[in-house]
Automatic annotation (TrEMBL):
It comes from the Bacteria. Catalyzes the phosphorylation of ribose 1,5-bisphosphate to 5-phospho-D-ribosyl alpha-1-diphosphate (PRPP). GO terms for cellular component: cytosol. It comes from Aquicoccus porphyridii. This is Ribose 1,5-bisphosphate phosphokinase PhnN. Its EC number is 2.7.4.23. Belongs to the ribose 1,5-bisphosphokinase family. InterPro entries: GK/Ca_channel_bsu, Guanylate_kin-like_dom, P-loop_NTPase, PhnN. HAMAP family: PhnN (MF_00836). It is an enzyme of class 2 (transferase). One of its GO terms (biological process) is 5-phosphoribose 1-diphosphate biosynthetic process. SUPFAM superfamilies: P-loop containing nucleoside triphosphate hydrolases. Pathway: Metabolic intermediate biosynthesis; 5-phospho-alpha-D-ribose 1-diphosphate biosynthesis; 5-phospho-alpha-D-ribose 1-diphosphate from D-ribose 5-phosphate (route II): step 3/3.
Length: 183
């Protein structure tokens, strides 16, 4: 049996990680990918494995990533172990970048994309609250938030500008369309 894989994408501050964690709490069989990123683990935000540039290059050369990309001056990797979870029939979610979706579709046939959005005002508020970036960095992120997704992908959009439960219910309906599979 083969599982399903979903790339959760959207602008910074849209609530991707919050929704993914909430979905995992409601769907215990859901597998959330722990990305590998070339930044310090104490940078906050999502749970990820922070490594150095040199270690990333070494692991990439050893074939330890099913998918990798660069964004915002960092390198990101999806561990190859995700393929084992898919082979066991798991539903797999990973936080991805909109810019790598074409590569992701090639790496994971049948990839579905869930595009999480929120209003510009809410994105700006959330980014300022994180206190990780300068005002010009935040302005640049808000500009990138309007970039279109690549064409030809299976994309579902969820607006996370309102109550979290509304966006979460929509996400659950996509991941587990059979209501008996939720807790």
């Amino acid at each position: 049996m083969s599982g399903a894989i979903f790339a959760i994408v959207g602008p910074s501050g849209a609530g991707k990680d919050t929704l993914m964690q909430a979905a995992a709490a409601r769907l215990p069989d859901l597998y959330l990918v722990r990305r590998v990123i070339t930044r310090a683990e104490d940078a906050g935000g999502e749970e990820f494995e922070g490594i150095t540039e040199a270690e990333f290059s070494t692991r990439l050369a050893r074939g330890e990533f099913a998918l990798h990309w660069q964004a915002h001056g960092l390198r990101y990797g999806i561990p190859a172990s995700v393929l084992d979870h898919l082979a066991r029939g798991k539903t797999v979610l990973f936080n991805g970048s909109r810019a790598m979706l074409d590569d992701a579709a090639r790496a994971f046939p049948g990839l579905r994309v869930i595009h999480i959005t929120a209003s510009d005002a809410l994105l700006a508020q959330r980014l300022h609250a994180r206190d990780r970036e300068t005002a010009p960095d935040i302005a640049a992120r808000l500009t990138r938030a309007r970039l279109p997704l690549p064409e030809g992908l299976d994309v579902t959009e969820i607006d996370n500008s309102g109550p979290l439960d509304a966006a979460l219910d929509r996400l659950i309906s996509i991941l587990a369309p059979d209501p008996e599979t939720t807790t």
